């Protein structure tokens, strides 16, 4: 057989293999909404979706949301059929949204009447449904935004049923809980005066969300979208009648990744504020790496070495980080701490430590260099670092 014929056969075999390539999908069941999961037919989904795309499809069902979240980071599945927090994580990592089955809804952090703010929950008892539920995810995010970690609470009790948290408040055995807004509104009509809303989440896509890998062929992605929008109902899945706003998923993702939105003892500032503070002689401290600083930084900012080893959490362990360079700064001068934006914890931590060390005026530029550049302000590059 000639080389041309062999090459042709190899190409045909490769094409046949590609046509028969297997797609993988996972159905992640929200612990507090198992009823929706019980309606699904895994085998039916495998057969129906496989026929629609012309490929073999393997569907896995799981209640282990912690493992599914890990799978979004490793790209383990081609398709995720999962609650909003899982879809939000996947959308950050090479997936695109097909749609969701339910309208977006909001969650509220509810506390007893004597609790004046989310910060006042510190040291108290928090009731939540199962640890991997959307309720716990939202609670962690709302507390984090207020500068609190679960470590700051006296106790976190995980039980099975979401609305039981309201009963716990009524009985006085819990100080706070997180529930859907609609459940709170119904409960408050009957038991008004016992508790109040301390914080409200942004809209969260409801039901199942479906996301698919962006690197799959466009034709395959289109067939997947069509099947879920029409034929999925025969397998017990609600139709994807709702194409949720991507910003809603972004906000959900931020709850688990981003720094708080305020910092006691320090003042949050915008790029415009930083520009004005610099003009008045404030010290702008860049807490990023030396390489990042050398590449570009806010004009006039100084590089202050800071080695970060603690967790990116409001309850970070200060002793694990090296803040010794802060001792060389003048505590009496207005000081602005900045890094790589809302996902970067270094400026948050440095600001907290500066406040604890008695700096007179501490400003936290949460948006950091990304916000500075987005505001159209110039950056400095390749400037020799100030060395001791």
Automatic annotation (TrEMBL):
PROSITE patterns reported in the protein's UniProt record: RHODANESE_1, RHODANESE_3
Keyword Transport among record annotations: no
Extent of the signal sequence: 1-21
SMART domains hit by this protein: RHOD (SM00450)
InterPro entries in alphabetical order: Rhodanese-like_dom, Rhodanese-like_dom_sf, Thiosulphate_STrfase_CS
Domain (Rhodanese) ranges: 278-381
Keywords assigned: Signal
Entries under Pfam families matching the protein: Phosphonate-bd, Rhodanese
Keyword Signal: yes
Name under which the protein is recorded: Rhodanese-like domain-containing protein
